[in-house]
Amino acid sequence: RQFEQSSHISLLQTALDARDNLDEGSRGRISIDLKRSQFWDLKPVSFCPEFPQCKANLALQWHAVHQYEPIPYEYPPEDLFEHLLALYWEHLNPFYPLLHRPTFEKSIAAKLHLYDQTFGSTVLAVCALASRYSDDPRVLYGDMTSKHSAGWRYFNQIEFVPNIFLESPSVYALQVYPLSVIFMLATHMVETCWVLIGTGVQLAQMIGVHR
């Protein structure tokens, strides 16, 4: 995670430097007796047994949110899923090369979208965009017959606000924002693109993309 000069980390470092200057360069360490365990000790969490992959990604803290666990996203049926992915690579990726195809397809094959919320949102955004190029009635919203509803059954499931702020945003968390902007540009709610762009830029700055 990238911390700028106006961040609380920089403020803390400035305070520590000022303390050292007052102590004539003495860098005293915090006594172990002064540490309060409720703030210093890590609290263990229970891992999701269904997906052992999550063990490497969860912080060992009681306040950590389980990001890697089964999520109730509704994806297209397998045949429609493959059809939509093919449409995305054919019609959208040549003009908006936001995704690295080998990595994306490898993650799909590993079924990462079934337990990684951020990647699942990216997959839903891909399905929503590709739905506009499909004649399959299953991409329409609910019982509607209008082509204007294509993709909304997937787009409405995307969660844009991250449920965990203790970790740096992943690449998938960043990718879902430009994909969603492309989707919203073809709707009557174009003004929401500014909100998505602003949030995406903030997340990108958190990991130092602008450096």
From TrEMBL:
Alphabetic keyword roster: DNA-binding, Metal-binding, Nucleus
Gene Ontology BP annotations: DNA-templated transcription
Xylanolytic transcriptional activator regulatory domain span: 86-211
UniProt xrefs under Pfam families: Fungal_trans (PF04082)
InterPro entries tied to this protein: AtrR-like (IPR050987), XnlR_reg_dom (IPR007219)
Primary localization class, coarse: nucleus
GO molecular function, one term: DNA binding
Gene Ontology CC terms: nucleus
UniProt-annotated location(s): Nucleus
Matching PANTHER family: HALOTOLERANCE PROTEIN 9-RELATED (PTHR46910:SF3), TRANSCRIPTION FACTOR PDR1 (PTHR46910)
Protein name: Xylanolytic transcriptional activator regulatory domain-containing protein
Organism: Collybiopsis luxurians FD-317 M1
